[in-house]
Amino acid sequence: MWIAERKPRCLKHPHGFYVMLLKRSVDEQWRLHLWPNGHREITGMPARIHLHDTHVSSRILTGALTNIQYTSTPVTSDCPSGKPVYEVIYDGNRYAQKTANTLRKSEVREAVSETDRLNLEVGDFYCIERYTLHEALVPTDVATCTLVCMHEHADGIVKLMGVDGYPDEISFLRTDHDGSVFLEYL
C-alpha cells in the first residue's frame, strides 16, 4: 500500500482529526481526513461551523458522518443567538507543520440557521459549495476516513463561527504525525 511504502506525514487538526495531503496543484488539493474512534481532544477553540474558499467534494471511505450546512445573518452584539465571527489566517503553507494558523476575531456577530443535514455512510459522496458554512459531526464510537478534493479556489475571507469567551486572536500549530496512523483504519 502507498502509505506503508512512501511513509507520508500528516498533520493533526486542532479538532482532533488527521489530515494527509495526497496531491496539490494550482487547481485542486486531494487529501485524506481521519477521525479515529474514541475521544478526540480539541486543542483550539471548540467551534466547528466554518467555511472554505474552495468547493469541497468528499467521499466516505470508512465510518460515518453528518454534514450540516448553515446560512448566517448579522446580528447586534447583544443578541443571545449570535456568535463571534473569526477570520482564519494561514501564515504560509497550511500543510507545513511550522505554519501558524490564526483565528482573528472580527467586529461581526452572526446567528446561524441550519439549511441542510446529510447523514452519510461508507461510499456516500457529498459536496459543499465554496463559502457555505458547514460542520462535520463524526460519532466517537466509529473511526471515519474521507477522501477530500478541494477545488476551484476563490479569494475571500475564510471564516469560522466562534465561541464567546475566547481571546480576540488565537494562534496554533498543527502537530506532525506519521501517516501510518491511517493504516489502522483503512
Calculate Rg over CA atoms. Answer: 16 Å
Characterize the main sheet: 7 strands, antiparallel
Relevant CATH superfamily? Jelly Rolls
> Count of DSSP helices?
1
Question: What order do the SSEs take from the amino end to the carboxyl end, as H and E?
Answer: HEEEEEEEEEEEEE
Low-confidence stretches: none
Distance between the termini: 10 Å
Describe the structure.
- With 186 residues, the protein is mainly β.
- It has a single domain (2-184), classed as Jelly Rolls, CATH 2.60.120.
- It is 3% helix and 53% strand.
- The protein is built from one helix and 13 strands; from the N terminus they run αβββββββββββββ.
- The chain has one helix spanning 2-6; strands spanning 9-12, 18-24, 28-35, 55-62, 64-75, 83-90, 100-121, 125-128, 133-137, 144-151, 159-161, 169-173, 175-178.
- The strands form two sheets. Strands 8-4-10-3-2-1-13 form a seven-stranded antiparallel sheet, with no helix packed on it.
- The longest helix is centred in the N-terminal third of the chain and has 5 residues, at 2-6.
- It is globular.
- The model has no long low-confidence stretch (mean pLDDT 92).
Brief summary of the model shown:
With 186 residues, the protein is mostly beta strands.
Itemize the secondary structure elements and their pairings.
Layout: H1 2-6, E1 9-12, E2 18-24, E3 28-35, E4 55-62, E5 64-75, E6 83-90, E7 100-121, E8 125-128, E9 133-137, E10 144-151, E11 159-161, E12 169-173, E13 175-178
Antiparallel strand pairs: 1-2, 1-13, 2-3, 3-10, 4-8, 4-10, 5-7, 5-9, 6-7, 6-11, 7-12
